[in-house]
Amino acid sequence: MTDRVHSIDAMRIVAVVLVVAIHTDPFQGLGTAGNAVNFAIKTTARFAVPFFFLVSGYFFARKTVDRDPRTYLLRRTVALGSLYAFGLALAAPAFFGGRLATDVATGRPVVRAGAARIAAFLDPIELLYYGTSVSEVLWFLPALLFSLAFVAAFAAIGRPRVGLAVALCLHVVGLLGTSYTMFVDVPFEVRDGLFFGFFYVSLGYAIARHGWNPSRDRSGILLALVACFVVLQIVEFSLLGYPLRGESFGSYVFAPSFGVTTAFLTLSLFLFLLSRPTLGAGTPLPSWGVYAVGIYVTHPVVLAAIRGLRDALAAAGWETVAAAFWHVGGTPSTVAGALGVYLLAHRLRIVEIGGSHFPGVPLLASRRSR
Questions:
Q1: According to a count of CB atoms within 10 Å of the terminal CB, is the N or C end of the chain lower?
Q2: Which residue has the higher pLDDT, 70 or 53?
Q3: CA count, 13 A, side-chain hemisphere, 114
Q4: pLDDT band at 2; cut points 50, 70, 90
C-alpha cells in the first residue's frame, strides 16, 4: 500500500458533504416519498462521523509505531484544540445574537437574557467535554480529542486490545442511550468521546496495528458488504423509527443517531478503501479531502445564514421560491459557502490550512517572521 491512501482522502470530502446533508434534510416535507428519500439519505450518511473517528484512530496507530503515543497525542491536542477554537470563534457571535434576539422577542429583559446565554456558552462541561454549549455540531472535536486520549492511555500501558474491549462495552451503553431507548433509560448524555468516539478510534487503531490490509482482489466482496450493510442499516432504522413508534413509513423523517449496523457499515467501507488505495487518485477528490474538517467546522454558521435567507424569502411571500431554493440548493450552497468561508479565513491568515487554526495566530506568526 502506498504511503498516501487516496481513497481515504477522497472519502473525507464525500463524508463531510453527507454530514451537511444530514443537517439540511433536503427532501423533508416533500410528501411521503420525499420524506422516505430524505430518511434513506440521512440513514445511509450516518457512517460519516464514525468514519472520521475510525480514520483518526488508524493514522494515530500508523504515526506512533516507533514513537511515544503521548508525544503524538500532544500534537493532535494542539491541532484539534485550535480547530475547536476557530469553530467557537466563528459560531459564538452568530448564535449568541440569534438566540438573544429570540429571547428578547419573547419578552425577556436583554441583560438577563444575555447573561443567561453567556453562562450557558461557558458551562465548563458542555464547553470542554461535550462540545455542545455553542453549537451541537462541534461535539465531534472534543469527542475526538478525548477518544484519542483514551486510546493513547491504553497504548501507553501496552493494552490496546483491552482498550478496544472496554470501548465496545461502553459503545453498547451509548447505543442503548440513543437509538435503543425503548429497552433501557440511560440517564446521561452518551454522544461523546467515551461512549461513542472511543470505540471507533480504537477500532481504527486496531486495524492499523494488526496490519489489516485487504488485497485488491477482495475489494469486490467488501463493496458487496458495504451495499449489504447500507440496506440493513435502513431496515434497522426503519424499524426503530416507524413500526416501533406506531408510525407509518414516510409519515415524517425519523432522525436516527447511530445503530448496531453503523459499525459494520463503517468498517466494511473502510476496509474497502484500504483494498483500493489509489481509488480516486485521478480525480480532484483526494486533494479536496484536506478541506473536509474546515467545511465541518464552518458549516453550522453558513447553514444558519442560508436558513435565515430561506425564512426571509418565505416571510416576503415567496414561499415557492424559498422551498425550491432549500430543496434544490440548500445542501450545495451550504457546502460551497462553508468552503468559501474556510478559504477566506486562510487567505486572511486567520487560520492556516494544514497548520494552526487558532484564530489570528498565522497572521501574527507571519508578521513576526518579517
A1: C
A2: 53
A3: 5
A4: very low
* Cβ-based neighbours of 164, under 8 Å, separated by 6 or more: 199, 202, 203, 205, 206
* C-alpha to C-alpha distances, 350 to 89, 166, 230, 247, 293, nearest whole angstrom: 11, 40, 40, 48, 16
Percent of the chain with pLDDT over 70: 95
Tell me the one-letter amino acid at 256: P
Domain locations along the chain: 6-368
How many residues are recorded in the chain? Answer: 370
List pLDDT tens digits, range 343-357: 999 999 999 999 889
How far apart are alpha carbons 284 and 293 in whole angstroms?
A: 17
Mean pLDDT of the chain: 92
HSE value, Cβ hemisphere, 13 Å, CA-based, for 36: 8
Helix segments in the chain, DSSP class H: 6-24, 31-44, 48-63, 69-105, 110-121, 124-125, 140-156, 160-176, 198-209, 219-241, 260-275, 285-288, 292-315, 319-347, 361-368
For residue 215, give Cα distances in angstroms to 111, 221, 276, 277: 63, 11, 8, 10
Listed ranges 37-46, 99-108, 332-341; the one with the highest mean pLDDT: 332-341
Q: Which residue has the cell 506568526?
A: 365
The label of the residue with cell 497548520 reads 355
Distance from C-alpha of 330 to C-alpha of 343, rounded to nearest angstrom: 20
In terms of pLDDT, which residue wins out, 72 or 2? 72
Number of C-beta neighbours around residue 225 at 10 A: 18
Tell me the percentage of the chain whose pLDDT exceeds 90.
74
Closest-CA residue to 234 (of 43, 42, 48, 18): 43
Burial class (CB in 10 A: 0-12, 13-18, 19+), 210: exposed
What are the pLDDT digits (tens) for 189-225? 999 999 999 999 999 999 999 988 899 999 999 999 9
